[in-house]
Amino acid sequence: MTRKFSGTATAAAAFVSVVASCTVTSAQTALPSSLVYLRDVDATIAHDIRYATSNNFTGKPLPGYDAAECVLTREAATALRLVQADLAASNRALKVYDCYRPERAARAMAQWSQDSKDSAATKPFFPNIDKRNLFALGYIARVSRHSTGTAIDLTMIEKDAALTPAFDAAAGYGPCTGPATARAPDNSVDMGTGYDCLDPRSHNNVDKLLPEQHQRRMALVAAMRKRGFSNYFREWWHFTFAGGGAAQHYDVPIRPRSGR
Predict the structure, then answer these.
(1) Lower CB count within 10 Å: N or C terminus of the chain?
(2) What domains, with CATH codes, occur in the chain?
């Protein structure tokens, strides 16, 4: 039997369909309940979210970084708060560079690496390596734990550190492997290379560091390990939180904190 619908019923059905469609779209762009803004857990941890700016190895903000905010799983954010408290005794504090990374940003990194074009503004991040080899050498991942909210890139700063001077893309900064005074500006303690320095000098087992640079790296690794984070040996700044159960990858954009 064929059922006939009145114009009113058809319009009502169409309205329900539109509402359902909007709900699905909203759900796809809303932050999952398992992820939180780090500022809501510990507002004292400094933020320098590089992929929301042009101060990164691609030379431009990455898709999905609609706000310069650190987002993590609640368990990872809570553990990071403990690290911050631990560092207070040595008059140091944390500064985060990258936290949750939408999968669309990881895809953009992959596309960038296969582009044969290069620029003087981005080469200081990988002064000794062809960018087409960065994935093969393990410096960038096509599928990243960052997209689960359990990985984080960070460093240490002195508690009374001044704000980082503004980044100038046209300034012609020296390579990330050079002296801190010649690199792009950063208010962190000197770890021997800049952040996101895609080079063997960023490995934690490298032997070409000054004693104080090596000591700082090891101090950061120890502080993070104490609270459940493990370091990626190729990058002194990259840590993954082991707790919190199975990790799910996300592609929702990072939006400004609601009401802020």
Answers:
(1) N
(2) 32-241 (3.30.1380.10)
